[in-house]
Amino acid sequence: MKAAILDGIVLGLQYGLLGVGLTLVFGLAGVLNLAHGQLAVLAAIIAALTIDAGAAVGLAALVGILCAAGANLFLDRTLMQPVYRLRGESRVLLGLLLMLGVAFVIDGFLEWRYPIEALSLRIGGDPIPILGVNMRVGSLLASAIAVAAGAALLVFFRGTTTGRAVRSVIQDEDGARLCGINPAFVRALVFALSGALAGLVAITRSMTSPVTVTEGITLTTLALIVAVVGGLGSVSGAFLAGILLGIVDRVSSFYIGTYITTIMLLAAAAITIVVRPSGLLGARR
Amino acid sequence: MGAPTVAEPLLVVDGISAGYLDQDVVHQVGLTMDAGDAVAVIGSNGAGKTTLFRAVCGMLAASRGGVHFGGVDITGWRAHRIARAGVAYVPAERHLFPEMSVRDNLSLGAYPRRPDATRMALVFDLFPRLGERARQHAGTMSGGEQQMLAVGRALMSKPRLLMLDEPSTGLAPKLAAEAYAALAELRRQGLTILVAEQQVPMALGLADRAYVLENGRVELEGTSTELAQNPDVRRAYLGVA
Q1: Mind listing the pLDDT tens digit for each residue in A208-217?
Q2: Which residues of A touch B61 (CB under 8 A)?
Q3: How far apart are CA B178 and CA B176, in angstroms?
Q4: What angle do CA B109, B110, B114 make, to 5 degrees?
Q5: Does A175 contact B97 at a Cβ distance shorter than 8 Å?
Q6: What is the residue extent of each domain of chain A?
Q7: Burial of A155 per CB tally in 10 Å (0-12, 13-18, 19+)
């Protein structure tokens, strides 16, 4: 049980890192990025190809992350422009459909060109006992990176002028414009940040299990569940939800079976929508 | 290269028309004000005051006409750029950041610069209530406090022009009078103020000059004293038979 919970926290930190990128873009731009998992896979495959070409692992990871950030920034500046002219429900729908299209394009391209490519970063070293449970070094490193990224995001949003400007656009876009904040600049920044986070989660995930070309849909679904449970737009909500869902995932897989975990996670999201539509830490509107 | 004899007006609104969905609400409105002026735009609900203000500060695209600010043609500029050029607009709905503290709201008013401590002290001096509640979330404050915060946030950018749309809206008479007292103090300190108001007596009390807007057109303009004595104005807006 203790091992399942610790494993759940390790997994949950990855879920949080995965969900936070999706939640930010939705909170800011009203776009549900259904290609979020595919962006992560894109980063993983680019990193794997860069390693194949002989580059150092750190450099390859950076290249993958930057490519995902660049791809998301490109989507914001091009494909999403018609979306921003719409308001309310039609905006959400068009954004969602266009991003679904992007997801198919990335999936299709990668499966066609690189069907057997995968990113797997083996982190060596003897397991380290934590509370009497032997944890793999890869898991601990992935968790440390997720915690550091989460902390960096909180410092950015609470403590910097640019971070506060991003939050101001989420809370009242017109108010932000009146303060001299350019919403288009803030959107571009957050899309790039979200893409980089998708890339980062691909790198950390590959430290515990290989990231293959077919994994995009799974990652997108997980990101969506985490974002819904945590509250769309909430950074700390995404991490809290990620950890809770990670524990649900590992504990149910330990006591019932792996086949049940996805159903359990979807059920958690469904229950959240019924009981607390704004999510754990989301703003009530 | 002699000294200029006539100062250039700070704001020139030149025959501006604007509206929504191809339907103009404001028709060829002109307005001029010098630095240091306090000017009111008065008129009943639906006369087009808000549309005019939104068009001036770039929240709404004008269908014709232009706006010059400080000698620069700012026609067609987007709102954030006009704000950075020194026009601070306080809309009637205030548009505060509800889940941020009073202090963070004020800090963002100074964007993109870092908030200036002396400037913030000046705002707290004008509205001591905001200082007492610096850590409170804006969304949990009363209407009067939110109005103070909206004005305070606008002041943080050291604007050259402060525009206020219906600063008395939703306020009890006593609070509305306090809001206008604060504006009078800012005016005394030399700030240029443009205010839209349907509470005509208060607006005329603050402003030196006023424009009367009816059905999207300027029907009358003059000094506040002239307008306060005009029989039509007295009948329509001052409740005098």
Answers
A1: 999 999 999 9
A2: none
A3: 5
A4: 135
A5: yes
A6: 2-275
A7: exposed
What predicted TM-score, i.e. pTM, was given to this entire model? 0.90
**A111-170 per-position pLDDT tens digit:** 999 999 999 998 888 889 888 889 999 999 999 999 999 999 999 999 999 999 999 999
Flag whether the ipTM exceeds 0.90.
yes
Contact A175 B89 (CB under 8 A): no
Residue found by looking up tokens 């006369």 in the block: B47
Q: By residue range, what is the domain housing residue B63?
A: 9-86+162-171+192-241
Please report whether residue B101 resides in a domain.
no
- Domain total of chain B: 1
Would you identify the CATH topology of the domain A2-275? ABC transporter involved in vitamin B12 uptake, BtuC (1.10.3470)
- What is the rounded distance in angstroms from the CA atom of residue A1 to the CA atom of residue B26? 70
Nearest to A161 among B81, B88, B111 (CB): B111
Provide the phi-psi class of B209: left if phi over 0, else alpha when psi is between -120 and 50, else beta. Answer: beta
Q: Which of residues 150-169 of A touch B (CB under 8 A)?
A: 161, 164-165, 167-168
**B14-49: per-residue pLDDT in tens?**
999 999 988 999 999 999 999 999 999 999 888 999
Shortest CA distance from A162: residue in chain B: B112
Percentage of chain B modeled with pLDDT above 70: 97
Whether B228 maps to a domain, the answer reads: yes
Residue B14 counted as domain residue: yes
Subunit contact B108:A179, Cβ cutoff 8 A: yes
> Tens digits of per-residue pLDDT, A79-111?
999 999 998 899 999 999 999 999 999 999 999
Q: What is the pLDDT of residue B8?
A: 86
Tell me which H or E stretch contains A260: none
CB contact under 8 A, A161 and B89: no
pLDDT at A284 exceeding the cut of 50: no
